[in-house]
Amino acid sequence: MIKMLHSYWAYLVFIMMIIATANALIKYFGKKEYEAKDFRIALFTLIVSHIQLLIGIILWFTQDYFSEMSMKDIMGNSVLRSNVVEHPVAMILAVAFITIGYSKHKKKLTSAGKLKPLAIFYTLALILVLAKIPWSVWF
Q1: CA distance 129 to 95
Q2: What are the domain boundaries of the chain?
Q3: Is the pTM of this model over 0.85?
Q4: How would you classify residue 77: left for phi > 0, otherwise alpha for psi between -120 and 50, otherwise beta?
Q5: How far apart are CA 71 and CA 65, in angstroms?
Q6: pLDDT band at 139, cuts 50/70/90?
Q7: TM spans, by residue (predicted)?
């Protein structure tokens, strides 16, 4: 059940990351004003990504990878290495980037000042997510 929840929640996270990143980039480069809607988009993206991270951590700790095989076996298998090491590390970094961008944007006073950290850090997070989504099981 946790794996299914993690898989389906990922679609919401992915859609929100695309919306938040595109919104920040378009508004920043278009020199538009920061609005309450932008705050809500960034906040909702932060919330759903943190929920996904918690679900993923629960899933990671409930898997039997480490009781059945050694770390050497896991690192020697590219699929297992991706699922057990690379994907979780990349997603933790992506959520960290989202958190940093959100935190930095709250401290700024101007529209450009608020949109710039969102654009930078949400873009970095989206790139990491795009790089480590298991595309073969998504479609």
Answers
A1: 9
A2: 2-138
A3: yes
A4: beta
A5: 9
A6: low
A7: 6-29, 41-61, 85-103, 115-135
Look up residue 30 and give its DSSP letter: T
pLDDT tens-place string over residues 54-107: 999 998 888 876 677 777 887 887 777 877 888 999 999 999 999 999 999 999
The residue to which tokens 């795009």 are assigned: 130
Taking the C-alpha atoms of residue 47 and residue 36, their distance in angstroms, rounded to an integer, is 16
Token readout for 10 is 């990922």
Q: What tokens were used for 134?
A: 């298991």
Ramachandran class of 86: left when φ > 0, alpha when ψ lies in -120 to 50, beta otherwise: alpha
Residue 42 to residue 21: CA distance in whole angstroms: 9
Q: How far apart are the first and last CA of the chain?
A: 19
82 CB-contact burial (10 Å; exposed 0-12 / middle 13-18 / buried 19+): middle
Instruction: Sort residue 74 into left (φ over 0), alpha (ψ -120 to 50) or beta.
Output: alpha
Within a 10 A sphere around the Cβ of 21, how many other Cβ atoms? 26
